[in-house]
């Protein structure tokens, strides 16, 4: 199965372009609580999306699914989740959870009205993963490398891929029969760790989904929607062609790719460490 590709946008024209190019999930991002404090120094997505965006984007989608990330569990969670579901979310994502109880509360709030997707991105969730995965009603799970690598005080988010953390978590998910994914990908040939290396790791680890990052297309910085359309069409086609090739590769290829990933990641992390020391 090809990776389910996800892209964050609340812009109707960009959502239509992404859907037309074959993006599987359009992602409305409501998470704001604590994000600035955690990621203020990181070049990551800081959302200005709203619940009202759901009812704008949902009617446009006839091929892609609508994914909505809510805020971490808080006193307003039940109301927020209810509004997200009532407005038409196909899949609801819970970020920054730490305990089985938070996950159970989330599942109970959804109550079968939409699919559930957990975003595992805290050390506590990783430590409690067996308890968390015992909760009934989890449909999918994704490893959020951005926040998780910050939680471990790492310099580069793909250190979690190189040190075996992602593989260990994926083995837990696989044993439960859950669809899972991790991190984001750029266009082929782009990214600090080029996308083709990351995609091959998705295939080696049996991953089902990946986020198309801003390195793939930062639609906020491209004024011409036809240029955005060209980027998406070419970029998704390149990914799908590469996936077709990966299906024919043997274990030797994936072992070699894993070693390359580890070497590249170690160098990038070391360079970031040196830069931090000098700075």
Briefly characterize the structure.
The chain is an alpha/beta fold and 279 residues long.
Mean pLDDT: 94
CATH architecture: Alpha-Beta Barrel
Tally of DSSP β-strands: 8
Query: How much is the radius of gyration in Å?
Result: 18 Å
Structure description:
This protein is α/β, with parallel strands linked by helices and 279 residues long. It has a single domain (4-278), classed as Phosphoenolpyruvate-binding domains (TIM Barrel, Alpha-Beta Barrel), CATH 3.20.20. It has 13 helices and eight strands. The model has no long low-confidence stretch (mean pLDDT 94).
Key words describing this protein structure:
279 residues; alpha/beta; TIM Barrel; eight-stranded parallel β-barrel; 13 helices; 8 strands
Write the topology of this structure.
Layout: E1 4-8, H1 12-21, E2 25-29, H2 35-39, H3 52-57, E3 65-69, H4 77-86, E4 91-94, H5 100-110, E5 115-120, H6 123-127, H7 129-132, E6 140-143, H8 145-151, H9 159-162, H10 165-175, E7 180-185, H11 195-204, E8 209-212, H12 225-246, H13 251-278
Parallel strand pairs: 1-2, 1-8, 2-3, 3-4, 4-5, 5-6, 6-7, 7-8
């Amino acid at each position: 199965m090809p990776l389910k590709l996800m892209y964050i946008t609340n812009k109707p024209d960009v959502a239509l372009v992404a859907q037309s190019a074959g993006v599987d999930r359009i992602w409305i991002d409501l998470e704001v609580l604590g994000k600035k404090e955690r990621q203020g120094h990181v070049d990551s997505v800081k959302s200005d999306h709203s619940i009202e965006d759901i009812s704008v984007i949902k009617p446009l989608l006839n091929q892609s699914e609508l994914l909505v990330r809510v805020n971490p569990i808080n006193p307003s969670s039940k109301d927020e989740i209810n509004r997200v579901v009532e407005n038409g979310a196909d899949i609801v994502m819970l970020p920054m959870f730490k305990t089985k109880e938070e996950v159970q509360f989330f599942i109970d709030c959804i109550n079968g009205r939409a699919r559930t997707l957990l975003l595992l991105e805290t050390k506590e969730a990783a430590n409690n993963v067996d308890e968390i995965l015992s909760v009934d009603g989890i449909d999918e799970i994704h490893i959020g490398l951005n926040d998780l690598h910050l939680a471990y005080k790492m310099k580069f988010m793909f250190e979690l891929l190189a040190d075996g953390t992602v593989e260990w978590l994926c083995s837990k998910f696989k044993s439960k029969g859950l669809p899972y994914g991790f991190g984001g990908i750029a266009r082929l040939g782009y990214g600090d760790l080029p996308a083709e290396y990351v995609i091959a790791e998705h295939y080696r680890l049996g991953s089902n989904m990946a986020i198309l990052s801003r390195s793939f297309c930062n639609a906020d910085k491209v004024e011409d929607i036809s240029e955005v359309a060209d980027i998406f069409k070419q970029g998704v086609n390149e990914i799908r062609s590469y996936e077709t090739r990966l299906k024919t590769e043997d274990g030797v290829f994936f072992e070699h790719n894993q070693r390359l990933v580890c070497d590249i990641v170690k160098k990038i992390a070391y360079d970031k460490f040196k830069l931090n020391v000098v700075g």
